[in-house]
Amino acid sequence: MTRIWKTGGFVAADPWVVETEERKAGEGERAVLPLKEFLVKAEESNEGGFGVLIAPADDVKTLQPYLDRIDLVAVAFPAFNDGRAFSHASLLRDRLGFAGEVRAVGDVLIDQIPLMLRTGISSFAVTNATALKRLAEGRLPGIDRHYQPAATENCPAGGYSWRRRA
User: What is the pTM of this model?
Assistant: First the structure.
């Protein structure tokens, strides 16, 4: 079972659905489209409120002209050792100035969540049993030292202030 977690706890009713061939967004749900599908739809209309799924090999910079029309960017972690989504989140926050929700989807592990928060990821689609249990208990691991700047000013606990670096 997948549950959505934010720093305030688990979200009771999340409307976002990552669309696949087997699963489409229904009534009261919002679609998260793969990048190629989103680009086609964005070119066809001026509507907003989109959700976009960024796969590891996608170029997140192609979203720049459409960021004002996107509510959620889901960055995919297909395996625990594939960290390209860390770079995608950091680029979205630091270089592109995206202030909307960035969600980690896929192989989200408890030990990586503090690092994901530092790159600007603000919500997590968690399926890992250990991560679900520890988050439910409020046991988020801490990190004492950091070797790189964070995309967040108040990280990893507390509120967020997304900002662009000069």
Answer: 0.84
- Is the peptide bond between 156 and the residue preceding it cis, with omega within 30 degrees of 0? yes
156 CB contacts (<8 Å, ≥6 apart)? 7, 113, 114, 117, 118, 140, 142, 143
* Sheet containing 123-126: order of strands: 9-10, 3-6, 123-126, 101-106, 70-77, 50-54, 30-34, 16-18
pLDDT at 142: 64
CA–CA dist 73, 104 (Å, integer)? 9
- Tell me, rounded to whole angstroms, the distance of Cα 111 from its chain centroid: 16
CA-CA-CA-CA torsion sign (89, 90, 91, 92): positive
Give the pLDDT score at 23: 85
Tokens of 141: 């691991």
Mean pLDDT of the region 87-91: 95
Question: Distance (Å, rounded) from C-alpha 113 to C-alpha 60?
Answer: 21
Which contiguous run of DSSP H or E holds residue 18? strand 16-18
Q: In this structure, what token pair is assigned to residue 53?
A: 């799924």
pLDDT computed for residue 19 by the predictor: 83
Q: Which residue's structure tokens are 């590891």?
A: 56
